[in-house]
Write a structure and sequence with these properties.
homodimer, mainly alpha
Chain lengths: 111, 111
């Protein structure tokens, strides 16, 4: 497979940039909805420890801040990570070049 | 009024120590229940921002850690603060010496 080298400039067309923004925002929305649902679930328990909820949110926030990096030089890696973790679906990537999709899928498998 | 000086040693009898512990724990339970309820309420909103919830909990946790100081030298001030804020009720203080109750009430009014 002819893989994109992380060090060379990756070109994103205008239409790909629009798709990338949508993919990024959708994944973030899904993940935030999941964190919100989990937080509610933790609070349902009558013996809920509200500081355990706080610890959970602190950890999730750090993780989200770390992963969601919207730089065009990073997006292939970001999408690969999110694909692997299930926040991005293969069909979300429709409209990106075959080369980019291959790269994202490849990195998702090996990381 | 003959007020206890903050610098002089305040004597707590064994029975007062038991009451103090109960007052302290009850106030903390009430306040944590209130924080939990508020957190749930914030999450009820469909447009809930889970990081706003996280910020709220961070701030509340700092405040709780700061206020709830179970040192006998500090308890009069802690209880005064909690009385003023409504987490301790006057009736909770039954069984403490008249001098201590007066002092707590006095500080609660002036702070």
């Amino acid at each position: 497979m002819n893989l994109i080298s992380p060090v060379r400039e990756i070109n994103w067309t205008q239409s790909e940039k629009k798709i990338a923004r949508r993919v990024f925002e959708s994944a973030l929305s899904r993940q935030l909805a999941s964190i919100t649902a989990r937080t509610k679930q933790m609070l349902e328990d009558d013996s809920a420890d509200v500081w355990a909820v706080h610890d959970y949110l602190t950890q999730q926030r750090k993780e989200i801040d770390r992963v969601y990096d919207y730089r065009y030089s990073m997006l292939i890696f970001v999408f690969a990570r999110l694909l692997r973790d299930g926040w991005v679906r293969e069909s979300d990537l429709d409209g990106l070049s075959r080369e980019k999709v291959n790269e994202i899928q490849h990195i998702a498998r090996i990381r």
